[in-house]
Design goal:
single chain; mainly alpha; globular; 412 residues
Length: 412
């Protein structure tokens, strides 16, 4: 009991006021959206919808790597405006290139209806580069502003999705809303910042660098990029691999379970966002006090993830029946096995930030890369034997391996 009191008295929980309030609403809205959309679309349409989201998400993992690099850079920077001005041009240029490549591959390889939905999400992807402004707000500890914008976006999109269900809209419209979801937050933050003279001058001097110059920039931060690419692949590779030897219905059943498990996983991201400045400082120190603080933060991540996982395993049948209904009953065992990945997921978020602050990206590349290979291998081994539960368990093994790899590597 004293352990609980000691952990929850730490600054890690005291600093989450605005972020916690915002994320309760954001994740609550996302959770309601997932339930409403899943029940409306059914397993088959949900499978197609999830594949489109994972295709686009995987393609834009390079952007996630750039975001991670920039967030830690700006957290330790003494000239935030300069860094944002430089970085947004590179990201915009890279997103244009990725959009062209992604659209070409989709129309060549995939069915035309799926390629069309991917196009609906990818065409506005260049505007997703405006998320750099959101990273600036987060890294400079403007929690109230960032939280207000997140709440506005999440509640607005929830209302739109409810209207689409009421109007019995086709699948394409839900894809359009997903595209808006990628871009709206960054646009709103930009509009708020442009009210100041400093940021107005940003537009006057803004230039998009050439593809060659942007690729050279990517090469200069290649370890950060590759590490996050592997991390993002680890989050999606199970569903991508499953899509190669299953149908839309099976993928929909699996995706329904994943959507429930992913909601608490976002709490790990909230903890990382709220503590980025603190982590950037203590992670680079070698004194005993800093090590003790890191140990407490790590234990907090593990404790919260374990409690959530236990709750999901215990109440999985009730959750599936209440949230999705009888047609998703096959998702119950999948959800239970997938919940085993949550403690590992929380720990990976912690180590992702800590290793990034210590500039140990080469370790991230090795551990995440090997975890992706393990996930792929076990998906192919366990799925034919145990079905979708085997796929979920393979993912749990991969997350746990990555977390243990980071922990034991920390001792070296």
């Amino acid at each position: 009991m004293n352990l609980f009191k000691s952990l929850f008295k730490q600054d890690i929980f005291k600093q989450l006021s605005w972020y916690t309030f915002a994320q309760l609403i954001v994740q609550g809205s996302a959770f309601l959206s997932a339930i409403i959309v899943t029940r409306y679309l059914g397993p088959s349409n949900l499978g197609i919808y999830s594949f489109v989201q994972n295709y686009v998400g995987t393609l834009l993992t390079v952007g996630s790597g750039m975001d991670f690099y920039f967030t830690w850079k700006i957290a330790k920077s003494d000239d935030h405006f300069r860094d944002v001005q430089q970085f947004i041009g590179y990201k915009f240029s890279i997103y244009i290139l990725l959009t062209i490549l992604g659209l070409s591959a989709a129309w060549i390889v995939l069915p035309k209806d799926v390629a069309f939905m991917i196009s609906l999400m990818l065409v506005p992807a260049c505007l997703a580069s405006l998320s750099v402004f959101s990273l600036y707000i987060t890294a400079t500890d403007k929690a109230r502003l960032m939280s207000s914008i997140q709440i506005t976006v999440s509640v607005s999109l929830l209302i739109v999705k409810i209207l689409l269900v009421v109007l019995k809209a086709p699948l394409y419209w839900f894809v359009v809303v997903s595209a808006i979801d990628m871009t709206l937050g960054g646009i709103l933050v930009m509009l708020v910042l442009l009210r100041t003279e400093e940021w107005k001058s940003f537009l006057k001097s803004f230039q998009v660098p050439s593809f060659i110059k942007s690729i050279y920039f990517l090469y200069s931060i290649r370890l950060s990029i590759i590490a996050i690419v592997f991390w993002q692949l680890l989050l999606r590779v199970d569903q991508l691999i499953l899509a190669t030897f299953s149908n839309a219905y099976t993928l929909g059943v699996y995706s329904a379970a994943v959507k429930i498990a992913e909601v608490p996983n976002f709490l790990a991201g909230v903890l990382s966002a709220a503590l980025i400045s603190r982590m950037a400082y203590v992670s680079t120190k070698d004194d005993d006090i800093s090590k003790e603080k890191l140990q407490k933060i790590m234990m907090s991540y593990l404790l919260v993830g374990s409690i959530i996982a236990f709750g999901i395993i215990l109440f999985a049948p009730l959750a599936i029946h209440i949230l999705y209904g009888a047609k998703f009953i096959d998702s119950i065992p999948v959800l239970r096995f997938y919940a085993l990945s949550i403690p590992g997921m929380f720990m990976n978020y912690f180590f992702l930030g800590m290793y990034g602050a210590q500039d140990r990206q080469h370790h991230q590349v090795g551990i995440f890369g090997f975890a992706v290979l393990i996930n792929i291998l076990f998906v192919y081994i366990l799925t034919p034997i145990y079905g979708l539960s085997g796929t979920a368990f393979a993912t749990s093994i991969a997350y746990t391996f990555a977390a243990l790899g980071f922990y034991f590597n920390l001792k070296k």
